[in-house]
Amino acid sequence: MSVTKSRTDPRDYRVINLANGIRALLISDIQDDEARVDNNDDDKSSNSSHDSATPSSPKQSAAALCVGVGSFSDPEDVQGLAHFLEHMVFMGSSKYPEENGFDAFVSKHGGYSNASTDCERTVFQFSIPPKHFREGLDRFCHFFTSPILAQSSVEREIEAVDSEFHLASQVDSCRLQQLRNHIAVSGHPMSNFLWGNRVSLKENPTEKGINIHERVKEFYKKFYSSGYMTLAVISQGTTIGIANVIYGMSWSQSCVTSLTRWVT
Asked: Does pLDDT of 52 surpass 80?
């Protein structure tokens, strides 16, 4: 697939499609030899409501992944579940099990990470100096291929979502959004409580006998499928080198079974 770009844009672009349906946009931003990403060996052999530290260097590599599901897909009885899952995937993976290990790694090396849940999409992103990008991208990848979604993280992350809600409730744009929710047609997803808080994620489910831990795992299995994922990566290597880094990780194995389960 060709990419249309400005005549003054010096970057190189490549679109690749992984075997499981993830489409990835690769952007090569080579500006000087010192800023190259840690994928030079590959070059020679082959021809994104969650926030961490602010980036400290302009020479950063970055990646973002968009999952085509958001708050409109929340179940009626657990509103705010999409936002809650956005928080839970940061809490460790099978390869990197330490809670908040990704944020700690990114912050330690002067990078930045964030995530946000919208009505119909959830976006995760991070940037980091190029020499740490390979490991950062591998850690990022395992958010989606093998998140732990541990029971021990549930209460803390409900509190984190609740805290964000209370902070946002004083922001005019968020208050206007909630007003739109109140006046939306009954039965439309916009009429639901999209943000989530302690009441919607703990108190109401507990009263109804709902296991929130099981429900967030079900939501992940149903919706975090590779066919709904789009990846964008910008780095200081060639697009071929960046592609080889991605092919060497677990991206191509992500969530194929859940895609089949959702489509059928």
From this structure: no
Are 19 and 253 in contact by the 8 Å Cβ rule? The answer is no
* pLDDT for 33 beyond 50: no
> How far, in Å, CA of 111 to CA of 132, rounded?
9
How many Å apart are CA 189 and CA 32, to the nearest integer?
48
- Single out the residue of 246, 249, 235, 229 nearest to residue 12, CA to CA: 235
**Residues with Cβ < 8 Å from 233, sequence gap 6 or more?**
24, 25, 26, 27, 61, 62, 63, 137, 242, 246
Q: Is 86 a catalytic residue?
A: yes
Single out the catalytic residue among 86, 99, 120, 214.
Answer: 86
Query: What's 89's DSSP letter?
Result: T
The pLDDT tens digits of the residues spanning 107-156 come to 999 999 999 999 999 999 999 999 999 999 999 999 999 999 999 999 99
Distance between CA 7 and CA 23 in Å, rounded? 24
CB 62 within 8 A of CB 127: yes
